[in-house]
Design goal:
Number of domains: 2
Largest sheet: 5 strands, antiparallel
Number of helices: 12
Strand content: 5-15%
Radius of gyration: 22 Å
CATH architecture of the largest domain: 2-Layer Sandwich
CATH superfamily of the largest domain: Transcription factor LuxR-like, autoinducer-binding domain
Structural class: alpha+beta
Distance between the termini: 61 Å
Order of helices and strands: HHEEHHEHEEHHHHHHH
Oligomer: single chain
Shape: elongated
CATH topology of the largest domain: Beta-Lactamase
């Protein structure tokens, strides 16, 4: 694929995905692109923060809903070698049975194969604002010819990954933001100082509020996050991207 063909392909694919009115229509278009490249199944997953649990990611797949339920119930995301690969790698991965080495991974593969996903190619996603995810194309076909086709079309499939990320990010943000607790400005400020190791008394002096008011905000923070301690609230806040470690490090710590 030369430069001109690449630009035309990007324009055509991007227009189809960009014009989608909602996430379901967007994913229908993405799945159709997968089918045009002889992949029966398409999976797109994107977490808007690399600290968020992968289970909370924006997820779309056109495979069996029964398989999705089994995957969730057995918490396969915790042992899935494809997910593990995408969390730390950048290059595409062509995978099959050989990728599933451990006994529990082999059980996972056998069950996935039963629902038609025998092998495929997965493209990791790592965005500039700590987004992490993957675009996966899978099929029940298992032949050397099919694998050769994937290698030939790898540049085009990589472009599809880029376009899917760019156009799907808005849906991921919309959907995952609903699962993030909404903190008031005062609660966010208290949380920041808690993360910097400040006590209730110190925060009350910094913010010029009574200790009772600070404790009230901290109680609300724990309630919204469904945790029972300040340390658990801070850990959850980092995972959800409500506070950023890098920014905390540059914040002056007043006595």
């Amino acid at each position: 694929m030369n430069e001109a063909e690449g630009k035309m392909f990007r324009y055509e694919m991007g227009a189809a995905l960009l014009d989608a009115a909602d996430s379901d229509t967007w994913f229908d278009e993405l799945s159709e692109i997968g089918r045009r490249h002889d992949f029966e199944y398409t999976i797109f997953a994107l977490s808007i923060r690399n600290t968020m649990p992968f289970e909370s990611a924006f997820y779309r797949g056109n495979h069996s809903t029964v398989w999705r339920k089994i995957y969730e119930q057995k918490h396969y995301v915790r042992i899935d070698p494809i997910v593990r690969y995408c969390q730390s790698k950048l290059t595409p991965l062509v995978w099959g049975s050989e990728r599933f080495v451990e006994p529990e991974e082999q059980i996972l593969y056998e069950q996935a194969s039963g629902f038609g996903m025998r092998w495929g190619v997965t493209f990791p996603i790592h965005g500039p604002k700590q987004e992490v995810g993957m675009l996966c194309f899978a099929t029940s076909r298992k032949s050397e010819e099919a694998r050769r086709d994937v290698v030939v079309h790898m540049p085009k499939l990589g472009l599809i990954r880029d376009i899917a990320y760019e156009t799907g990010l808005r849906f991921a943000r919309e959907e995952t933001s609903s699962s993030v607790p909404k903190l008031t400005p005062c609660e966010t400020e208290c949380l920041k100082w808690l993360a910097l190791g400040k006590s209730t008394w110190e925060i009350s002096k910094i913010l010029d509020r009574s200790q009772a008011t600070i404790n009230y905000h901290i109680h609300n923070i724990k309630r919204k996050m469904d945790v029972h301690s300040r340390s658990a609230a801070m850990m959850m806040a980092v995972k959800l991207g409500l506070i950023e470690v890098d920014r905390l490090a540059s914040t002056p710590c007043f006595a």
